[in-house]
Design a protein that fits this description.
The protein is mostly helical. The protein has a single domain, classed as ABC transporter involved in vitamin B12 uptake, BtuC, CATH 1.10.3470. It is about 75% helix and about 5% strand. InterPro entries: ABC_transp_permease.
Length: about 350
C-alpha cells in the first residue's frame, strides 16, 4: 500500500458543507423562513396577550382563512408554471353570488354547487387558452378574467343575496369538537384541498410536468412533456379552486355579494410567495402556501387583538412580501452561479 493510499481524504470544511446543503435544499429555504416567522409570531403573540395560542383561537385561524387557503393552493399550481392569475378574487365573488342566486331561485344545492364550480373552471380554461394558444401574457389574460368575472357577478345581482339553503349553511355552522378544539366542514374542505395539492404536485406526472415547465418550458417541450395541456389545466384547477373558495366564503358569510373578494387575489399571491414559491416558477410547495396563509392570518389576528387599524395588516404583509422577493432573488442568483 502506497503512502498516498494511506493518506485519508480531507474532511470538508464547514463552508463547503454549507454550500453543499444550500445547493441541494435551496428551494426549501424560503419555506423554512416562513415557518420560522410563523413560530416567532405565535410565540411573540403568546407573550404579549397570554392566551393567543389557545385551541379555540387557533381553530378560528383555520376557519377564518379557509377560503384563502383554497385560493392559495390553486394559485400555487399557476405560479409554479411561471404564470400568474389575478382573477381568483373576482371568480370567487362571481361563483359565490351565482350559487346564492341559484339557491334563491329554488335549485337544490346538489345542482347549484356543481354549476358554480364549473363556472370557475370555465373562466380558468379561458385564461389558460389565452395564455397558451394566443400567446397573451398571463398578467393581461388574467386581468381580462378579473374584469369578466367581476362583471358577471354584477350581472347576476347588484346587491347581496342571502343564503338559506341548509346544506350550504351546514358547511359553516357544523362544529366537530375535540376538547376545546373545533373544526368545521369548510376547514376540512380547505385541508383536503391542501392534501390533494401536495399529492398532485409531488407524486404525479402532472405535478412533475408543472415543475419542469416552470424550470424551463423549452426544455420541457424538448423532453416531450405535454406542456400545452398542463399549462391550461393549471389555470383550470386554479379556477376550480376559486369556485370552491366562493362556496366556502358564501357558507362563511351566509350570503353572496358581488363585491366579495376585492383585493383577495393580492392576499393569495402574497401568501404563496411568502410560503416560498418563486414567482419565476419551477420552485415551491403547496404546504409552503398553507404556511404563508397562516402567517397572514396570524398577523391579522394580532392586529385585531391590539385594536390597531386593519391597514397595518397590508403594511406588514407588504414588507414581508418585499423581504421574501429579495430572498428569492438571492437564491436564484446563487443557483445560477453554481451552474
Amino acid at each position: 500500500m502506497t503512502a498516498d493510499q494511506l493518506i485519508a481524504p480531507a474532511r470538508p470544511t464547514l463552508r463547503e458543507r454549507y454550500d453543499t446543503y444550500m445547493s441541494r435544499h435551496a428551494a426549501l429555504m424560503p419555506t423554512f423562513a416562513a415557518i420560522a416567522i410563523l413560530i416567532l409570531l405565535l410565540i411573540g403573540a403568546q407573550f404579549a396577550f397570554g392566551n393567543f395560542i389557545a385551541p379555540r383561537n387557533l381553530s378560528a385561524l383555520l376557519l377564518n382563512n379557509a377560503y384563502l387557503i383554497i385560493l392559495a393552493v390553486g394559485l400555487t399550481f399557476v405560479i409554479l408554471t411561471g404564470g400568474i392569475d389575478l382573477s381568483v378574487g373576482s371568480v370567487m365573488a362571481f361563483t359565490g353570488i351565482l350559487c346564492a342566486k341559484l339557491l334563491a331561485d329554488g335549485l337544490p344545492a346538489i345542482v347549484a354547487v356543481p354549476i358554480m364550480l364549473l363556472g370557475g373552471a370555465a373562466i380558468g380554461l379561458l385564461i389558460g387558452v389565452l395564455v397558451q394558444y394566443f400567446d397573451v401574457q398571463p398578467f393581461i389574460a388574467s386581468l381580462a378574467g378579473l374584469f369578466l368575472a367581476r362583471g358577471l357577478a354584477f350581472v347576476v345581482s347588484l346587491s347581496s343575496i342571502k343564503v338559506e339553503d341548509p346544506a350550504v349553511l351546514w358547511l359553516q355552522r357544523t362544529r366537530f369538537t375535540v376538547g376545546d378544539w373545533y373544526l368545521t366542514p369548510t376547514g376540512i374542505l380547505a385541508l383536503l384541498v391542501v392534501a390533494v395539492g401536495v399529492y398532485v404536485t409531488q407524486w404525479t406526472r402532472f405535478g412533475r410536468t408543472i415543475y419542469a415547465i416552470g424550470g424551463n418550458e423549452q426544455s420541457a417541450r424538448l423532453m416531450g412533456l405535454p406542456v400545452a395541456r398542463t399549462k391550461v389545466l393549471a389555470y383550470v384547477l386554479c379556477g376550480l379552486c376559486s369556485g370552491l373558495a366562493g362556496l366556502v366564503l358564501t357558507a362563511y358569510s351566509g350570503a353572496g355579494y358581488p363585491l366579495n373578494g376585492v383585493g383577495t387575489e393580492l392576499d393569495a399571491i402574497a401568501a404563496v410567495v411568502i410560503g416560498g414559491t418563486l414567482l419565476t416558477g419551477g420552485s415551491g410547495y403547496v404546504l409552503g402556501s398553507l404556511v404563508g396563509v397562516l402567517v397572514y392570518g396570524v398577523i391579522k389576528t394580532i392586529i385585531a387583538f391590539e385594536g390597531a387599524d386593519p391597514s397595518w395588516t397590508r403594511i406588514i404583509i407588504g414588507a414581508l412580501l418585499l423581504l421574501f422577493v429579495v430572498v428569492q432573488r438571492v437564491i436564484v442568483a446563487r443557483s445560477e452561479r453554481r451552474r
